[in-house]
Structure formats: C-alpha cells, structure tokens
Amino acid sequence: MDFKPTTEPIKSFFFVVGGWCCVALAVVGAVLPLLPTTPFLLLASYCFYKGSPRLHAWLHRSKSFGPTLDDWHHYRGIRKSLKYRAVAMVAAVVTVSFVLSSLPDWLRLVLLVLVSIGLVVIWRIPTLPDDAPRAPRMTAG
Question: For the chain, how many structural domains are there in total?
Fold first, then answer.
C-alpha cells in the first residue's frame, strides 16, 4: 500500500470526496450505535492524508475526533471509557428498540446478530487505560 500523498489532481479529488463521505458516516455513527465511528474516522484520515494534507491536519486537530485518531495513531488502541461508553450506547439503543418496536422476530434476530458482530469488533480493539498519557497531537502526515 502506498502511504504517500498523491500529486494527481483527479486522484486527490476522489480521496477528498471519499474522506468527506467517511467523516459523514463517522458523525452518523457517533449518534447511531449500529454504525461504527472509529473505522470511518481511520478511513477518512487515510483518504485526507492521500488527497489533502490540509484536511488531514484539520481532522486530527478536531476536538471531537482528534484525540481518538491520535490515540489510534500512537498506541493502536482506544481508551477504556470510550469503549465502555460505546458498548453501553449500543446496549441501550438495542434494548429500547426491542422494547418499543414491533419488529418481526426474524428482524430482531438479524439485528441481534449484527449488534453482536459490532460488539465483538469493539472488544477486540486494544484497550488503553484512561490514565494513559495523551498521545502527541498530530497536525499533518
């Protein structure tokens, strides 16, 4: 895999568009527990790195997403409180969905399988202690 920014304008354009799509999905994922945030952030970071160093730096400086990206870049993990918060949100939304909706049983089963896969993915990500030193702030490439 090539880890250098592209110099071709067409490729750069598509990387930037892909990066914005991933940021949008990450924002939606921050609200909807069934859609993961971190993988889309990592993909957005890669796309912006390839297509626009300025946008890459902006994403890493953001208050909302920067610290998570910096932890991943530096430690290859996420903080314990973030992991527990994600699991709690998933559990709460799924529980409310099951209680308040009249989903057919087959759809409940599909939802349960998808949520289970998502929870396994979350638990497999290395966990950082909350008191681990903050990762150095990234500003570009």
Answer: 1
